[in-house]
Amino acid sequence: MAAAKKTKTDKKPQAETGADLDIARKIWLAGVGAYGRAFTEAAASAEKLAHGATEAFDQLVAKGEVIEDEVRDRIAKAPTGKKVVSLVNDLTKQSKDRRAALEERVGKVRKSLTEAFAPYNLAALGEAVQALTAQVEALTGEVAALKAEKASKKTAAPKTDEAA
To answer: Which phi and psi angles does 4 have, rounded to 5°?
Structure first.
């Protein structure tokens, strides 16, 4: 009888273990489902926000164009409007001319600085060193070949002398 009791107690933990695994799996699946739902909702909200921002920007651009046209019309109708328009055009032209002159001066300064600091240009020096290294290696190979050729001639010449 004692053996029969042990068998019954052995089966209970196995049944409980199966139920525990089932509950653990369901908890896991609930977590995965919650993550999926949150992700879907967040993606939908982000899409709505992006669409809304684009729409709002387009509306602001359209409103700005309308206001710009109204201001231009008012200036053109004003008695001093032609003076204002010509003044704005003159100032725009002057600023473009000054900017071009400034860019030209900056270009000259850059060129002179580049020429002045050329000896200190590490990238250019590195490339020059690499080129010189390649030349030295090529010449070293040629010298080694000439030495080998000369040594073979010396060893060949005494053999002919010994035979004579």
So the answer is: -65, -35
Burial class of residue 7 in the structure, from the number of CB atoms within 10 Å of its CB (0-12 exposed, 13-18 middle, 19+ buried): exposed
Q: Distance between CA 49 and CA 43 in Å, rounded?
A: 10
Secondary structure (H, E, C), 60-84: HHHHHHHHHHHHHHHHHHCCCHHHH
Choose between 153 and 118: higher pLDDT: 153
Residue whose entry in the numeric block shows the structure tokens 């939908």: 44
SS3 assignment, position 96 = helix
Highest mean pLDDT pick, 12-26, 27-41, 146-160: 27-41
Q: What is the DSSP letter of 78?
A: S
Torsion of CA 112, 116, 117, 120, to 10 degrees: 160
Task: Kindly list the domain boundaries of the chain, sorted by start residue.
Answer: 18-77, 81-116, 122-164
Two tokens, residue 33:
């489902």
Q: What is the pTM of this model?
A: 0.30
> What pLDDT is recorded for position 21?
84
